[in-house]
Amino acid sequence: MKGVPATASGRYRRIKTGLACLLLGWFFLVPFLRWDRGPDLPGQAILFDLPGRRLFLFGWEFWPQDLPIAVGLLVGAASLLFYATALAGRVWCGFACPQTVWTDLFFAVDRFCEHRRIPPTLVKIAIALLTGFGFACWFTDAPTLAGRLLGGSAAPGSYGAVLIIGGLTWLLGVYAKQRVCLHMCPWPRFQAALLDRDSQVVTYQAWRGESRGRKRIPLREDLGGEPGGTRGDCIDCTRCVAVCPTLIDIRDGLQMGCIGCGLCVDACDTVMEKIGRPAGLIRFDSETNADAKSWTKTLPRPFAAKPMLFLSVAVLALGASLFAMLTLSPLRADLDPQRNPLFVRLSDGGIRNDFLLHIQAREPGLSTLRLRLAEGEAGLLRLGGHGDHIGSKTIDVTLDQRELRERLLITRPAGADAKGRSPLHLLVEDARDGQLLGTVETQFWGPES
Amino acid sequence: MAQRERDALTGRLTTGHEWDGIKELSTPIPTWWITTFLISIMVALIYLWLMPSFATTRSLEPGLLGWSSRGELREEQAVAAAAQAPWRQRLMALPLEEVSKDEELRRFVQAGGRALFNENCAPCHGVGGGGQQGQFPALLDDDWLWGGKPADIVQTVRHGIRNEDGDSRQSAMPAFGETLSKEQIAQVADYVLTLADKTKGEARAALLGAAVFKENCVSCHGDSGEGVRDFGAPRLNDAIWLYGGSRDAIIHQVTNPRMGSMPSFASRLNEESLRMLALYVHGLGGGE
Questions:
Q1: Cβ of A341 and B127 within 8 Å?
Q2: Which residues of B lie inside 8 Å of A (Cβ-Cβ)?
Q3: Which of A248, A263, A261, A247 is nearest to A100 (CA)?
Q4: How far apart are CA A263 and CA A272, in angstroms?
Q5: Residues of B with Cβ-Cβ distance to A347 under 8 angstroms
Q6: Fewest CB atoms within 10 A around its CB: which of A2, A253, A428, B55?
Q7: How far does A388 lie from chain B, in Å, by closest CA?
């Protein structure tokens, strides 16, 4: 078929198929996992709640200010990618990259529809739209999304996601295919910096393949042929080219177009078996080993210096993120000084500062909080602008839907030192057991003299 | 007449012009461009016909659709007013003191009150209500010239202070520079300075200014300088001094007093807005 590589079968094809099923399953099914968070919160195990500006990840709930955790996770993931690349070349590209997985899926559709009187284009459109749908599922309640989309009640963003991601899937997976890997993707551009001659890459063992030629040409003597034979193990059947998704010839050596999927390895091994020659003419191997003309392949060296460097960065970044995730603060409290005016002078000579108090709790059970100032800081607290003018040393506040947004007035009584600028620490405690949940640091302003 | 001919080399027509043997190839504007241009003109004509486009001597010719930006604003305002109607009814149905107990209504009043405050009050009293020393009183503190209950604030905002409105709050402090000697004024200033200090109870009575204060000031500012709100006479025994709390400032104020004025808002704000505004000011921190 035009534009569709031939099928290969063997070890790497099986790994690719299995991994693709796993990844597609992850992509499409994980949004349907449920996680009970009580009546007021979404019950989706993983949910990117964009309107609510929060991310639900099983028992965790992340807010925009938790971004450093995401940075750590991304740095860790990138370092793991570097590690895998330094060890075994572009295994990410060949096996796990969405571009590879979806392109492979569309190739499978082409092969399946051939001779079956099913128009492949329709199937591909369906898959593309389904991909858009699967993407949208991560951002909204997945089980009801299909109904809402068809009933016209879904958010405009959901329709946008289905159409845009569906369209991109079509553009990248059906139209662009290997052109993405060759011309668009930045990853191959810097893989040279990550690889060395000991990295495992797809290697054509030229020392035993050359000179290639038709099978009736006698085999070289050192390969077990007859004296005077000139042909190497490669019979120039070009199966390795036929199965290549990026349409390259691996026998030209390591090149940018190779995504390391190993399909040519499978194709060549099949042929070698048929002609009764040992497998491994094309194999995952290090260039050093290929130069050494060894019949046995080397294994990856996970503890070499360069891969270890990447691994240690990954471990550090992921460890830091995990630590931050495990010690996540149970609430977020902000005290915004209302600086117009900086302070209010009261009739008894006391000085008051007005703040906007904003508390958000992660835990639904947290409903009543106790506010007090740190030890040694004079000041009376009062919530809201109404009520008595005096305030008290501690006040209890009640959260509504895990949130509180209210004016907090803090008064330093006459006689207490309120000159100039002084630090202020507001302690937020759980009213049930007095456990300290957070400290907000801010400034108290008073007159200069 | 210029002769149009086909250029042998390119196979294209020439414009027929010739300059010293040099001829120009005809390169007409592409058809798609001309078509787009003509369509644009058509669209513009239709637009002129539908939308207000021509000024007449009196106003703007309204166009077939009768659209106007003012009308669009009116429609949006009507939608907003309809959405707010139930809240405004609730606000008017409750006594002023009860409004803050209804949490939802309180939020509505705070939001609406803030908008009204920024529009009407902030130019003098500041966006945060902090006032301006020497000119406009702060609205955040617990000191009120004319009363700090919601109903008092409604009254003050509706009719203003010392203006042409017949119901405005009126009072005037005499200029004592004409009736008292400079010495007496200095004595009374010293006396006033001690009023806020509770520890000076007995020593205060012995001051020379005590007699001057009793004769001239107590009728408005009260026996102990606690102020009388009916006259808008400020408290003198506290820490808040609109026109300054130094001895010089007090002497100046007694000699030649300054008195603030505030416009009447009766014609600008309706009853609902007055209530929202008063409750917002009441909630700034000093409401009684």
A1: no
A2: 100, 126-128, 130-131, 138, 140-143, 196, 235, 238-240, 282-287
A3: A261
A4: 14
A5: 141-143, 235, 238-240
A6: A2
A7: 8
The span from the CA of A165 to the CA of A102, in Å, is 13
**Residues of chain A found within 8 Å of residue B140, distances taken between Cβ atoms:** 341, 344, 352, 354
A336 and A277 within one domain: no
Confidence of residue A1 (pLDDT cuts 50, 70, 90): low
Residues from chain A that touch B239, judged by Cβ atoms under 8 A, are 345-349, 414
Closest CA to A449 of A419, A421, A423, A422: A419
Q: List the structure tokens of A77.
A: 């993931």
Superfamily (CATH) of domain B84-168+262-282: Cytochrome c-like domain (1.10.760.10)
Number of Cβ pairs < 8 A linking chain A and chain B? 61
Residue A243 CA from chain centroid, whole number? 30
What is the distance in angstroms between the Cα of A343 and the nearest Cα belonging to chain B? 8
**Claim to verify: residue A176 and residue A228 sit in the same structural domain:** no
Closest alpha carbon within chain A to B128: A340
**B182-255 has which CATH code?**
1.10.760.10
Nearest Cα residue in chain A from B141: A346
Residue A408, min C-alpha distance to chain B (Å): 10
- pLDDT tens-digit profile of A325-380? 998 888 889 999 988 889 999 988 889 999 999 999 888 788 899 999 998 888 88
The tens digit of pLDDT for each residue in A177-235 reads 889 988 999 888 878 788 888 888 899 998 888 888 888 888 888 887 788 888 889 99
The tokens for A260 are 């390391």
Rounded to whole angstroms, the Cα distance separating B73 from A296 reads 81
pLDDT tens for A367-420 read 899 999 998 888 888 887 656 667 888 999 988 888 898 889 999 988 777 788
Q: What SS3 state is found at B268?
A: coil
Residue type at A355?
F
The total domain count for chain A is: 3
How does A195-232 read in b/e, with b if 16+ C-beta sit within 10 Å? beebbbbbbbbbebbbebbeeebebbeeeebeeebebb
Same fold, B84-168+262-282 and B182-255: yes
Question: Among partner residues B127, B235, B287, which is closest to A340 by beta-carbon distance?
Answer: B127
Query: What is the least distance, in Å, from the CA of A411 to any CA of chain B?
Result: 11
Domain closes at, from A194, A214, A247: A194
Distance CA A426, CA A417 (A): 18
Asked if omega into B261 is within 30° of 0 (cis), the reply is: no
